[in-house]
Amino acid sequence: MKKVPSSIHFTQNVNKQLYSCLKFFKPDRIAILVDENTLVHCLPKLQLVKETPLIQIKSGEKNKNIETCKIIWQQLTDFKFTRKSLLINLGGGVIGDMGGFVAATFKRGIQFINIPTTLLSQVDASIGGKLGIDFNQFKNHIGVFKDPDAIIICDEFLNTLCRRELKSGFAEIVKHGLIYDLNYWRDIRMNLFSEITDWQYFIKKSVFIKADVIEKDPYESGLRKILNFGHTLGHSIESWYLDTEKDLLHGEAIAAGMIMEAKLALDLGLIEEKYFGQVINYIDQVFDRITLFPPFDKFKSLLRQDKKNQGSTVMFSLINGPGSCLFDIKVKDNQIADAINFYLN
Ligand SMILES: NC(=O)c1ccc[n+]([C@@H]2O[C@H](COP(=O)([O-])OP(=O)(O)OC[C@H]3O[C@@H](n4cnc5c(N)ncnc54)[C@H](O)[C@@H]3O)[C@@H](O)[C@H]2O)c1
Ligand SMILES: [Zn+2]
């Protein structure tokens, strides 16, 4: 396997790794950002905690917004944070994306360490420097690119994560196999989600894949777009749910997005029927289909906000064979409607 950037640390001893990073960065002040769940389940695992100020926010995608950022910026100000201070983001992708964004913008940027505590954030969200928040209904609409000063990945945190959250992270693992690595896709297919107990192999393999793609195209001018397979339609559904009382996890939206976008790939002649069947059957075996969908007009208006668009054209990243994916594919509205109908029927 290729090397990952030196800022990514896999460890079974989170405290040792964290101390060594802090010794290296020598911040003048530290704070830890948690939500109510990582406060209970993850914070007790950090020895540092007694002397370190805490910033606690409400969990969930619906709080990944500017209001919560204001609370965090205010606390950093109250704690007299300087440009030499450091924020530790202890949590899933919401904490990592938002805590990173807050740190990257506070006084034009302070140091931050991400300690991802969900499968989704360990295999995907914490890697690649995309930081940000949702704006009104639009997913990750406001944000910056900036790598954390360190990312500490310890699979021990997953012991307290519920099955539904674990499965949500698994969607990104499936995506990594589908878009980039034929052998990985084979390994994934050989495992029933319900029987996986050791996540180390999947975490490392997914991180290596994502890091490899990003090394080749850090700012998403080309290749990096393949990581958006399943996310064009998936994000639209996720955005729409932000405005409802119902909850939908990121990976659940992406699993639905991957089915619909695999159908687009089939209809555009990019993949064969047999492979299509294999992909759909595997995803269906792990994830229940979502039944509540935005109306088509709403879907279309949400798609217009997709960050990959060129002018008013919606661009897709679509698989074109096992372990392979193309980007910047134009798709017509009627093809999108067909893919949605296929999913819902
Ligand atoms: N920046 C990127 O490149 C990137 C990539 C993929 C996803 N994302 C973003 O990541 C977010 C989703 O991340 P997520 O799935 O980690 O969601 P999350 O941060 O909301 O965490 C899921 C839930 O698990 C709880 N939790 C976290 N760690 C726990 C633990 N160890 N034990 C028990 N409970 C725990 C959290 O409090 C939360 O309720 C989305 O906002 C998505 O847009 C970003
Ligand atoms: Zn994702």
Structure description:
- The protein has helices at residues 14-25, 36-41, 66-78, 93-105, 119-125, 163-180, 182-190, 200-216, 231-242, 250-267, 273-286, 296-303, 333-344; strands at residues 8-10, 30-35, 54-57, 86-91, 111-116, 130-135, 138-145, 150-153, 315-321, 324-330.
- With 345 residues, the protein is of the alpha/beta class.
- The chain folds into 2 domains: 8-160, Rossmann fold (3-Layer(aba) Sandwich), CATH 3.40.50.1970; 164-191 and 219-344, Dehydroquinate synthase-like - alpha domain (Dehydroquinate synthase-like, alpha domain, Up-down Bundle).
- The chain starts with 7 loop residues before the first strand and ends with a helix.
- The model has no long low-confidence stretch (mean pLDDT 94).
- Zinc ion binds at residues 124, 172, 231, 250, 254.
Report the count of strand segments.
Answer: 10
Radius of gyration: 20 Å
Ions and ligands: nicotinamide-adenine-dinucleotide, zinc ion
Major sheet: 6 strands, parallel
Question: How would you summarize what this structure contains?
Answer:
With 345 residues, the protein is an alpha/beta fold.
List keywords for this structure.
2 domains; 345 residues; binds zinc ion; Dehydroquinate synthase-like, alpha domain; binds nicotinamide-adenine-dinucleotide; alpha/beta; Rossmann fold; six-stranded parallel β-sheet; 46% helix; 10 strands
Write the layout of secondary structure elements.
Elements: E1 8-10, H1 14-25, E2 30-35, H2 36-41, E3 54-57, H3 66-78, E4 86-91, H4 93-105, E5 111-116, H5 119-125, E6 130-135, E7 138-145, E8 150-153, H6 163-180, H7 182-190, H8 200-216, H9 231-242, H10 250-267, H11 273-286, H12 296-303, E9 315-321, E10 324-330, H13 333-344
Parallel strand pairs: 1-8, 2-3, 2-4, 4-5, 5-8
Antiparallel strand pairs: 6-7, 9-10
